[in-house]
Amino acid sequence: MASDAYEEIRNLGYIAWKNNLSWMEKQLGSKWDKLIDDENRRFKDALNKLSIPRFKTSSSDYQLNGWKISSEAFSPEQQWSRGFFKCECWDADFNETIFVAAVQDSHGFERFSVEVYKISNNTVTHLKTIKDTGPSVAILHSSVWFLGSDADLRYNSVKSWDPNDVDTIKTHFVSDNLTENLDLKRGEDGSVYAVKSDFVNKQYSLLPSINTWSAQPHLQSGIVPDNLRLPGITENETIESLSFKAGWIVTRSRGIRTLYRIEKDKIKPIIWIWGDVSYDSRDPYSIDISDIRYSSYTIHIPKWILTNPKPHQYPCSYHEHPLPAFVVHPKDILNVKGILITAYGAYGTPTQVGSLISRWKPMLEKGWIVCSVMVPGSGDHSTKWIRAGQRLNRVESINAFKESIEALKEEYNMDASRTVLYGRSAGGLLVSSVAIKNPGLVGALYLESPYVDVLRTITNPILPLTTLETKEFGSIESPVNVLATGSWSPMEHIPVRGIPELFVIARTDTADLEVLPYEPLKFIKRVRGLGKGNEKLIFIHQGRGHFTTNWKSRAEDIALLDHWIEQSPGRVSKKNSAVRTKNHSIKYNNMAMTRRNRNRASRKNRDRKNRASRKNRNNMPPMMGGRKHRKGSRSRKH
C-alpha cells in the first residue's frame, strides 16, 4: 500500500475511485509551498479593512499544593509555575522532591518528552529528559511513570524511571495491538492505572504490577469506567465522575449534568448544570462549574460553599428534540443577524458547552445566535449514544444533525443565507458532511483542523491514526464499512463545478499530525471549483499543530463571518423567509407554508419554548453563598 498511497486512483479490488488532488498528500515540493503561500495571501487580503473584534479574556488559573496552573483556552496545554519556575506541558505530577511533565515538541508536533525536575528548598532544577514518550505522566512510590511511543500518536508501552537509578528505564508493558492506545489515570486515593482503549472497549491495570487487566478499576479510585451503575442514579443518567473522598457524583443526561451530594443513606441532587464540570483528582474538594447561564464558579467541599456566579447577560435556552441543543441568544433578540451552530460528535468526547459564551462572545455582541448541538457519537449522554455515532452508524448521526439544523432554523426563523456551521477536527467532518450532502441547508462553514478526506484516510494505513481509529471510523478490511463511508464522505460528494454558494473559512497547521494539512487544502480546492476563491478561505499556520486556534485567529474569523453575512443577499434584502436568492438552491423555492402547516409549526415552536423556559426556571443553581468569583473559566484534567 505504501508505494501507491499517493496515486490518483485508489483501487481496493472491490472499489476504485480517482482523486486528482492526491499530489497534495505528499506535502512536498515547490508546488506545495506555492499553494500555501497563495492561500495565506488570499486570506490576509480578505482581512484587509475589516474591523477585528477584541476578546475580553481573563485568568483561568488555579492553585494546587503551591503550584499555580494556567490552562489554555483552545489547547490541552497547561502552564505550571512555582516561584520563578515555569513549565508548558500537557500533563504534570509532583511530590515533595520531584516535578515531572509531559512536554510537547517545540515545533508544534504532537511528539512528547518527559522532563523531570528536582525540588529542593523551593528551588526547581532540571534532572532528566526522556524522549519518545506520551502526553500523560504520574508519580507512584517515588518513581516516574510514563508512556512510551513507537510512532506518531501511538502510545504502546508503560515505563518507569527511578531517580535513585538514573541510568535505568524499565518497560513494564508493551501492546502489540495497533488498534488500541494507552493512557495513565490517577486515582483520588493515590493509585495509578494504565488504561488501554480502542474507542469501544477500555481495560484497566493497576500500577505498579500490570499483571492483569480488567473492565473496571477499584471503586475507591474514583476513576469511572463505562456503564458504572450506583444506587440512586436513574437509568437515564450516565455517571461521568465521582469522588467518594469528597462525597459527590456527577451524571449526564442528554447534555445536562447533575451534581449529587453523597449522604449517609442516600444521594441528593444539588444542582443542574448546562455545561461542564471539572476537577483534579488530587484535590476533589474543589469542583469547577462552567455553565452557559453564569460566569464560571467553584463549589468548595465539605462545606458546599458556592462562589457566587454572576448571571450572563445573554438569554439561554435548551431544546431536547430532535437532538439536545443549548442556545445562547444576543441581548437584542428582536434583531438577530444570523445563527452559528456548533457540533462535534465523535470519540465519546463531551461537547464542552460551558465555554460557549467565552469563545463566541463577539458574535453574540454583533447580534448572532450561538448554539451547540449534542450529536450521537459525543460523550453527552450514554454509552449507547456514543456507539450510535461510530462506524456504520455515523450516517444516522449525520441525518439526525441535519434534522436538528432544520428545526433550529425554523425555530429562529433563519434561512440558509444566515446559517453557519462550525466544527473542528472530527467535528469538521460532521458539519462538512451534512452541508455537502444537503445543498442549500446552510450558507457557510467554519472549519478548524477539519477531518474531511475520510475515505482516502481510512484506506491509507500508513497514516498515523488510520489503524488506531478503526473502531471509530472504520477499516480498509471491511468493504461494507468503506462503501458506507463513501456514501457520506465530504470529498466524494462535491460537484465538479464546486459549491459557489457556500462560504468557507478553514484553518490548519503544517505541524498537525492528527489531520494532515493537505486534507483541508484539498477540500478548499474542491469546493472552490472553477471560482476565483474569495468565498473559500484557508490559512495554514506553522508550529501550532492540531490546536491552531488562539484568541487572535478566532477574532479574525468572526470578522470574516460577520462581513460575509452583512453582504449576503438574505441580509441585504432583509428577507427572513426561506425564499430563493442566488445563495439558495432550488429546494427553497417551494417552502411557503399553508395555514395548516404554519399553525402546526407554531404549536411545535411554542412547545419547544415552553420546555426550554421550564428548564431554565427549574435548573437555576442554588445560591449557597461565598465570595464573588473572578471571571473566566477553569479547566482541569480529570
Q: How is the topology of this model organized?
A:
Blueprint: E1 9-11, E2 16-18, H1 30-47, E3 61-64, E4 67-71, E5 78-82, E6 85-89, E7 91-94, E8 98-104, E9 112-120, E10 123-140, E11 143-151, E12 154-161, E13 169-174, E14 181-186, E15 192-197, E16 202-206, E17 238-243, E18 248-253, E19 256-262, E20 267-273, E21 275-280, E22 283-291, E23 297-300, E24 305-306, E25 316-319, E26 325-328, E27 338-342, H2 356-365, E28 368-373, H3 383-387, H4 394-411, E29 419-424, H5 426-437, E30 444-448, H6 454-458, H7 470-473, H8 479-486, E31 503-509, H9 518-528, E32 536-541, H10 551-567, H11 569-572, H12 595-618
Parallel strand pairs: 27-28, 27-29, 29-30, 30-31, 31-32
Antiparallel strand pairs: 1-2, 3-4, 4-5, 5-6, 7-8, 8-9, 9-10, 10-11, 11-12, 12-13, 14-15, 15-16, 17-18, 18-19, 19-20, 21-22, 22-23, 23-24, 25-26, 26-28
Q: What share of residues are in beta strands?
A: 25-35%
Amino- and carboxy-terminal Cα gap: 39 Å
Q: Are there runs of 5+ residues with pLDDT below 50, and where?
A: 573-603, 609-620, 622-638
Protein structure class: alpha+beta
| Nearest-integer average pLDDT | 89
What assembly state would you assign to the polypeptide chains in this entry? single chain
Specify the CATH architecture of the largest domain: 3-Layer(aba) Sandwich
Query: Got a strand count?
Result: 32
CATH topology of the largest domain: Rossmann fold
Q: How helix-rich are the residues, as a percent range?
A: 10-25%
Shape by Cα distribution: globular
Gyration radius from CA atoms, angstroms:
25 Å
Instruction: Supply the CATH class of the largest domain.
Output: Alpha Beta
Number of helical regions: 12
Largest sheet: 8 strands, mixed
- Provide the domain count: 2
Spatial order of the strands in the main sheet?
25-26-28-27-29-30-31-32
| CATH superfamily label of the largest domain | Alpha/Beta hydrolase fold, catalytic domain
GO biological process, one term: proteolysis
Organism: viral metagenome
Region (Disordered): 572-638
GO molecular function: serine-type endopeptidase activity
